[in-house]
C-alpha cells in the first residue's frame, strides 16, 4: 500500500494515458471519419450520396462534385427529401468535419444507418488533390 501512496503520480499518468487511448472507442469510432480515398471508394462503388452541410455561401466557394447542399440547421427537414432511399450510403461533408460530425447524429436519428463523415472535411479532400466544383 505504501508503494501506491508513494507513487500516486505514476498511477495517475497511467490512468490518463489509458483513458486517452480508449477515447475514440468511447466516441463510437466516428471521431476520425473516412479518409478522402475511402470516401471516393464509397462514392464510386456504393453510389454514396454526398451531402454538404455548409451554408450556401461556403458551398458556392467550393464543394465535392455532385454534392447536395443542405445546411446543418435544415438537415432534419430537407434530408428525407434529398435522399429518399435510406439504404444508400450518405457521405456528410463540411469545411473541417466538425459540423458533419454533428450532422451524423441527425442523419442516424432519421434512419440513415449508412451515413458517414468525411474526416477533415473539404480541407482533407483538397489536400488529397481531389477535384472541387464551384457554383
Identify the notable features of this structure and list them briefly.
alpha/beta, four-stranded parallel sheet, two-stranded antiparallel sheet, 135 residues, 7 helices, 13% strand, elongated, 6 strands
Structure in words:
This protein has 135 residues and is an alpha/beta fold. It has seven helices and six strands; from the N terminus they run αααβαββαβαβαβ. The strands form two sheets. It has a four-stranded parallel beta sheet with strand order 3-1-4-5, sandwiched between helices. The chain is elongated, with a radius of gyration of 19 Å. The model has no long low-confidence stretch (mean pLDDT 89).
Topology readout:
Blueprint lengths: L1 H5 L1 H19 L9 H11 L2 E4 L3 H6 L1 E2 L3 E2 L5 H8 L7 E4 L4 H12 L5 E3 L3 H7 L4 E2 L2
Parallel strand pairs: 1-3, 1-4, 4-5
Antiparallel strand pairs: 2-6
Helical coverage, percent range: 40-55%
Q: Tell me the Rg in angstroms.
A: 19 Å
Count helical runs. 7
* Amino-to-carboxy terminus distance: 68 Å
Number of strands: 6
Sheet bearing the most strands, described?
4 strands, parallel
The succession of helices and strands, N to C, reads HHHEHEEHEHEHE
Strand fraction band? Answer: 5-15%
Q: Ranges with pLDDT <50 over ≥5 residues?
A: none
Shape: elongated
Mean pLDDT: 89
Structural class: alpha/beta
Identify the strand order in the major beta sheet: 3-1-4-5
Amino acid at each position: 500500500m505504501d508503494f501506491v501512496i508513494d507513487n500516486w503520480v505514476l498511477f495517475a499518468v497511467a490512468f490518463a494515458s489509458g483513458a486517452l487511448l480508449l477515447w475514440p472507442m468511447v466516441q463510437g469510432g466516428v471521431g476520425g471519419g473516412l479518409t478522402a480515398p475511402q470516401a471516393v471508394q464509397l462514392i464510386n462503388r456504393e453510389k454514396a450520396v454526398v451531402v454538404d452541410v455548409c451554408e450556401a455561401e461556403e458551398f458556392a466557394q467550393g464543394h465535392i462534385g455532385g454534392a447536395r447542399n443542405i445546411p446543418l440547421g435544415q438537415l432534419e427537414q430537407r434530408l428525407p427529401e434529398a435522399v429518399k432511399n435510406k439504404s444508400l450510403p450518405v457521405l456528410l461533408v463540411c469545411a473541417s468535419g466538425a459540423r458533419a460530425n454533428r450532422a451524423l447524429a441527425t442523419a442516424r436519428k432519421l434512419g440513415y444507418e449508412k451515413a458517414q463523415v468525411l474526416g477533415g472535411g473539404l480541407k482533407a479532400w483538397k489536400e488529397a488533390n481531389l477535384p472541387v466544383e464551384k457554383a
